[in-house]
Design goal:
Layout (H helix, E strand, L loop, with lengths): L1 H27 L3 H14 L3 H4 L14 H10 L5 E2 L1 H12 L15 E4 L4 E4 L7 E12 L3 E12 L7 E5 L5 E6 L5 H10 L5 E10 L2 E9 L2
Amino acid sequence: MKKMLATILVLLIIFIGMLIYRTSEKEAEIKIDEINKIENYIKKIYGWKEVSNEALPEFDNINNADEKWLWGTLRENIDDYEFDYEKIESTAKEIFGENFNKEYPKAGTEFISFDEQNGKYQIKGINIDAISDLFLINKIEKNKDGYVVEIVEYLVDYTNSETGKIRIINTKDEEVYELTEEDATEGNIKKVVKENMDKFTKKIVKLEKDNDKIFIKSVNLKN
């Protein structure tokens, strides 16, 4: 009887272990809609190298992030041309989450200016060059707090497109590959980047989940 009980106990322990493993394995699975949500979110916060030196600068806390990147990102996520200060605050929370507590200067900046005549804020123009700042997602790991995403940064230079040549460069302004304008499709460009991963900058982006939303937590260079 004791042997039977011992056997049952062992089988029960094995069963519970398998159940826990399968549950954790299921939680670690990343669905297509999650990948799309992650990619779309990073696109929303991915800026321009010529504005803040990095399209996505490094930081360990969103409140310590580069201000040019913060306010440039905020500007790009406000659809209206003219709005109240409350719109700035609500949009900042919507993009960066409730942990974001940095206040936009009441007097405005080079991205969003304050019009004293009507007491409204207005979107200001930004001079952007013919070089597109882009990224692709290389890996995604899921955990109980959110996601750890490895991105590969690259740029596509259309400066000399009139010659029919499109350059793929890295964040150090080094040319990695050159394509004809005809061959420079999104698929071909991504293929070139994937085949030359060692020549591009990789960053680890940590995202935290808050119900059905995700927010940036930190960005660091991959060692």
